[in-house]
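Attaching the record inline, Q. Sequence:
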Amino acid sequence: MQPDNNNVSKPTRSERIAIIGAGVGGLIAGRKLRQLGYERVTVFESAPVLGGKVRTVEREGRTYDLGAIFLAEDYKIAREVVREAGLQLKEAPTRSIVDLDGNGGSKRLGQYARDRSGLIATLLAALRYWRLIGRYSSLEEPGFVGADPELHVPFAEYARGRGIEAFCSVLEPIFIAYGYGDYRTMPALYVMKLWDRHKLRHFLQLARGKKTGWPAVVPQGFLRICEAAAAGLDVRLATPVSRVERQPAESGTVIRVTTNDTTETFDRLIVAAPLERALSYLALPSQLHRIPRCPGSFLGTAKNTWPRSHISDT
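Structure, as predicted:
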């Protein structure tokens, strides 16, 4: 749903802005606001540490990343943080797939595709998928508003009969290994937004045995990106939000954010947290409760002059 543009006030640099969630999305949003001159930004995080799903474990002088493990070429903002923080980037090591349905051996992506459906069949299916992505202009737009209803069904149902099954069989272990979940039950909209033409081009190069120079890894650990983005922000760790509500004020309407300790007033709100958690403290329209669930975060903004029935997806 889109906000009522006739009822939206223009932001000012003096406004207080609350961000719920100190994962990558919330921290990058806070960093961008600081760059734009907003000084009164507060980030609330229920966990005692930064990062959301990002975890870096150090053991015997080496770092091991859980959650985010690769930095894609098109992650321009994250790469900007890496440069500004003086962190290193290096090409990710060669990845292999362990085929539990076969002999349990470790295979490169191209060999796995050959053994599953044949390399030619997989590449042809990937090209069909490429054309399907181009059919939906909404996939190139931010958010999920205005997406074609065809994309609301589970991806496995969408793929059936469209000649892309061979490509999907290779996509499955990639989705699971990267922590996105079971692509068969995720809405086609989520899968196709995530696995766009940029990533598909990379897949085709890998399947043909070519090196692409990306994705990259951060030897110091991906948590360092979150720490760099959090620098200068008012981040409240171990501070879960229990309630968010609008309240009339002399200036119009304000947003009250209640945590275990206190209630504070803000002019704007950004939610960068899992949808299931957001539903517990936000008074959202009933149709949002029926959105098909998908691993990841819900990123929305609430503006102080919007009607209660509106929320933005940007």
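Residues 119-135 form the longest helix (17 residues). Residues 1-8, 291-314 have pLDDT under 50 and may be disordered.

More tomorrow.
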